[in-house]
């Protein structure tokens, strides 16, 4: 269900259940969590096999859950999304085809979301009485703003790639999303790690700026020769 390979600088993770549009079961989520948690590469690239990125939660799994099981399943999805968000690696979602529900939520947890021209995104949970519970109600308004988040979540509508880009659900549109991950991986791994740490910092502004200055000094010292060569 989860395939993983590395070229040394990019860990490519493929959701490989195309007949089910890469919908995730408990086993699939646990496997994805483990691969992301143990990745050592500076960039992680997440993609789906076949015509979809990810349909989110497997509905056959969800239908069999009681209330307690539903809460545990939501918490598992939240852990996976948090692994993507807090990984030292820069995480890139390559969205070719549909990203729905939990699939959209996993993409939202990634640092960069690259869609092909045929990518479509949506949160259809409201159409059958649910909502995205893998951190979607937290990340969606933070990324696209409260008004857009309410529109997407309360209508259940599907967004084409260009509208998703305008809204901020996508970072960019490219015919080859994996090339974006490869391009990011050409930069110094330590700098990528520090950039992600700084940009993801949600502490108060003064302490953020203090840590920013400290990190800048550390990187300047580490890359002094490269900087001097550009003068």
TrEMBL record:
Source organism of this protein record: Natronosalvus rutilus
Homology family: Belongs to the enoyl-CoA hydratase/isomerase family.
Protein's UniProt name: Enoyl-CoA hydratase/isomerase family protein
UniProt-listed InterPro entries: ClpP/crotonase-like_dom_sf (IPR029045), Enoyl-CoA_hyd/isom_CS (IPR018376), Enoyl-CoA_hydra/iso (IPR001753)
Any one GO MF annotation of this record: catalytic activity
Segments passing through the bilayer: none
């Amino acid at each position: 269900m989860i395939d993983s390979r590395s070229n040394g600088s990019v860990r490519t993770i493929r959701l490989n259940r195309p007949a089910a549009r890469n919908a995730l079961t408990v086993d699939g989520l646990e496997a994805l969590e483990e691969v992301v948690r143990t990745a050592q590469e500076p960039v992680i690239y997440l993609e789906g096999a076949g015509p979809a990125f990810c349909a989110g939660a497997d509905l056959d799994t969800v239908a069999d859950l009681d209330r307690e099981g539903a809460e545990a399943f939501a918490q598992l999805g939240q852990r996976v999304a948090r692994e993507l968000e807090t990984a030292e690696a820069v995480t890139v979602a390559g969205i070719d085809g549909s990203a729905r529900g939990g699939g959209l939520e996993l993409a939202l947890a990634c640092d960069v979301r690259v869609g092909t021209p045929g990518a479509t995104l949506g949160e259809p949970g409201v159409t059958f009485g649910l909502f995205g519970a893998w951190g979607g109600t937290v990340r969606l308004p933070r990324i696209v703003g409260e008004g857009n988040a309410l529109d997407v979540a309360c209508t259940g509508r599907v967004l084409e790639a260009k509208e998703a880009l305008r809204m901020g659900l996508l970072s960019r549109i490219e015919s080859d999303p994996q090339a974006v991950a490869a391009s990011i991986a050409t930069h110094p791994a330590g700098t990528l790690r520090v950039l992600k740490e700084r940009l993801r910092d949600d502490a108060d502004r003064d302490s953020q700026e203090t840590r920013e200055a400290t990190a800048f000094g550390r990187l300047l010292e580490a890359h002094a020769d490269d900087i001097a060569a550009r003068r």
